[in-house]
Amino acid sequence: MDVRLTAEQQQLREAAAKLADDLGPGAVQELSDDGRIARLESTVAATEWRSLRSDGASGVEVAIVAEEFARGLVDVPFLGPVLADDLSRRLGRAVPVSAGVAGTAGVDLTRSSAGVIETPGELGELAAEDSQRWYALALAASAADLLGAARGAHALACDYAKVREQYGSTIGSYQAIAHMLAEGLALIEGSISVLRHAAWGVDELPADEAVQAARIAKIYCARAARTVCETAIQVHGGIGNTWECLAHVYLRRVLTSTGLWPVGLEDIDLGLS
């Protein structure tokens, strides 16, 4: 496989990133800005990215949008609708998106799981291969959400390390902080590799192998993202443990995405036996 993004995929990434940067919450206080959320919702709806699969998009393209939306803490539904769209495409009829959790307050302040149904009843109507591919897409998309949140938290920490001074120097100039941020970047790069393979495999690998690749990606990205988010809080020091710091918002999103379609090492056949 060629892991490089095509020109069209790169354009999709840039468009999703711009939308997230322009309309995503730039501070904790903006999470309760109803006007911003309404503008964000109308803009996301206008892109029609929630129906990417019906439009013939690959698992890679779904992952691209999911990743950038998590990086920018986009707080309107995407994962639930795009998976419902994929299920509708496979069934040949519309599947309603659950709205029951859209406004529910919980651990994740960005409500990234709004509309998600982890085991839709309609899955039983699909052939085994279609059901497996839907599951592989669900795992890959949630892994992409984890990667995006890790990238956002890491960028937040790097920006803070560049401006926060102690003893006359920015904290990023100290070896201990630099090493922590470098280790986080290494985890992110590893997540990118394993996710790209899983997202590509949704459509290109045999169905059982696609699920296996997506499970591995979910485990790796979940562990990496939690470490990166916890590191970001540590880099911020005391302010990192306050409500006003966005680092905890990223961590909350990571914890929620980790809990969706949970996978343990016991579920993975590493071929070592």
Automatic annotation (TrEMBL):
This is Acyl-CoA dehydrogenase. The lineage of its organism: Bacteria, Bacillati, Actinomycetota, Actinomycetes, Mycobacteriales. One of its GO terms (molecular function) is acyl-CoA dehydrogenase activity. The keyword Nuclease does not apply. It comes from Mycolicibacterium brisbanense. Residues 142-256 form the Acyl-CoA dehydrogenase/oxidase C-terminal domain. InterPro entries: AcylCo_DH-like_C, AcylCo_DH/oxidase_C. Keywords: FAD, Flavoprotein, Oxidoreductase. Pfam families: Acyl-CoA_dh_1. PANTHER family: ACYL-COA DEHYDROGENASE, ACYL-COA DEHYDROGENASE FADE28.
